[in-house]
Amino acid sequence: MSRSKSDQSLHQTLNLYISPDAYVFEPVATSPLDEKGHQKEKETMVIDRVTGAISLNPPGRLSPVAHEDVITVYGILGIVSLVTTDYLILITHKSPSSRFLGHDISLATSFRLLPLSSSTPSSSNLPPLETHLLKLVSLGLNSGQIWFSYTWDLTNTLERQWRQDKARGGRLEKGSAAERADDRFFWNKALMRRFLEVGRGVVGGVQRDEDLSRFILPVMYGSFELRQTTISSRPFLFALISRRSRYRAGTRFFTRGLDHDGNAANYVETEQIVLLDRLPSDASDDKTNPPSLGAGVEGRERFSFVQIRGSAPIFWAQVNNLRYTPDLQIMDLPETTSALRSHLSEQIAIYGSLYLVNLVNQVKYERPVKEAFENAMIVVDEPKAKYIYFDFHKECKGMRFDRVQGLVEKLREGLDEEGYFHLSGPVDSEGSSLVQPRKMQASVIRTNCMDSLDRTNVVQSALAKFVIDKQLRSAGILAPNDTVENHPDFMSVFRNVWADHADSVSNAYSGTGALKTDATRTGKRTKQGVLKDGWNSVVRYLKNNYRDGSRQDALDLLTGAWVIRRGVSAPLLDSRPLIMRLMPYILLLSLAINSASVQYSFWTSDHPLSISWPVTFQSLESLPSFNYTLLGFWTLIALFSAVYIWANGINYVSWPRLNPPLEVLNYDGPGFRTTQHGRGFHLKKPRWGKGRAAQVLKGGVDVVQGGLGAVAVGVGAVGGGGGVGDAGLDRRKGRHERLD
User: Fold this and answer.
1) Selection from 660, 681, 683 nearest residue 550 by Cα
2) At 66, phi and psi to the nearest 5?
3) Using an 8 Å Cβ cutoff, are 172 and 5 in contact?
4) pLDDT tens-digit profile of 621-658?
5) Which of 266, 492, 505, 575 has the fewest CB atoms in 10 Å of its CB?
């Protein structure tokens, strides 16, 4: 069904009428007038709770007054399939809107799940697996920030939006929000699959001609910061947007490197935007919309600078084992070259020339990642991709983060010639430019470190500061030799926005705020910042080892990387040996008995605890007597259980249950692997495997045989449970299939 321009706008606030037979969505807003001036009938979407069919304006639908309940929703995220039924995911609350170029930008703050089947049992009677999956959905929805706009495309940069408008012949045929959205950043596209498929093809011999596009709300997972500031009495808006890709979405240690389709882990696009209005003397060519001084910033002059980050684009992984530093594993697969070439080709097709900045250390633990990355780049030999290495920790040793400027100088040529997008001129009523841009961004800088978080944040903010100097000089806000560093009020805004952005990206991937944000906020390292980093590092360790399995499962469920197969049991049972499951309880029991024994001795003693200084034999004689046999026995039990847990650490990590990393744990091919820890008492020295890197690694099967139970601590019965282990592998291979 074709629509006119006015019909393409999304429905905003919706009334949802709930009955045992159907869910009926009806827009709250008044319907527009038809060509004869009569009010059109409201467009209504109905989901049949018996058949699951989704239809638009069905004949003979029930009247809303006959329904049992009504709720107000601000958007439909989609439908997720669980064990007993499918569930609608709805946005029920949103934050107060920010105004960006005349459009409302909102943050979803509360969600509600409704079962499609009216025969679904109450929450207290749901099967355990269903309850567990529902908790995962809630965890995923609340693990990061979900942003949306009814009238502005948050998934696309300013430049991509301009290109879309030009390609479509102007705003009159701009397409629906779902059609315009960038596939990578359309976070809920997998959840929206059934809505997107309505109207495609023939059903029951009848051609369906239904278009649900006005109910399909694309959302963005990331961050959105907008501030109004001034320099030299010139007001302008400063915005920073981060967009996280739905492909290879995951957590810090469970999602690294590339997949076979070339999608990178922790892939985030960051766009820095400056919006301002030209002075009257600069706007003589703008006859249609003369600027109004004293009014709010309308953003007729727009600057955009885009950067990307992503995990080192090779096949590699880190295997948790309760140690602070996981085991490093690099897999020299035959597909490495094709996957990297696919990744580079996609970036070049989207952004133009590519500068790959690698910040990992060139010594010790991180060195193999650097060398494998460089070897892969040599093999691919892509002329439009330039590799640049910067040893961040060596160059910035002693908290000298100002030395990042050396990297900026290396990239100066690309930043000077084709580093940002600049649009200036009249706009139409929807905020779309009517003129050719003055400057296009013809290249992009892709930055990575090990996590692509903390070091990457410092570098990206330094590059952004360099570019905004050039943009504000071009706009006449800064003098040719001036810099934003000379304007402390703006620098406070700039640094805090970038630090908040760093925290948002880091929370989504690692579970904590970013490290080194004191350098971003203040421009230098501080002792308080170092202490905060220490605390965040401890929290990261705990979350990455004991919580991230569930977070990974939640992301796999929401992005469509794992899909339930009804009738097949899921991996929830703990299949580890009984002694392995009991060890944590034995450790706690032994510590509790020792503690109770010591306290009992003090309580029953005739002598109060009083030791003078310096300690003498006489003062020690006043101590209560202990049952040293009992203390010694339970101390030995505690030590044994602690050593056992430490030696078998991989079995006590919270692993993903839905898509366990069996390919990583099973890998026994060429590449590199550090000494294996936490897999019993058999240690292996680090060495290279055969292939481009060196000789074949042995013992990979031992890892899985001793580690499938390992995976089972958080994973459940991987490899058991009705063939779920094999099914999990099949799903993982297809987890990044595009939903075009």
Assistant:
1) 660
2) -85, 0
3) yes
4) 555 566 778 888 999 999 999 999 999 999 999 999 99
5) 492
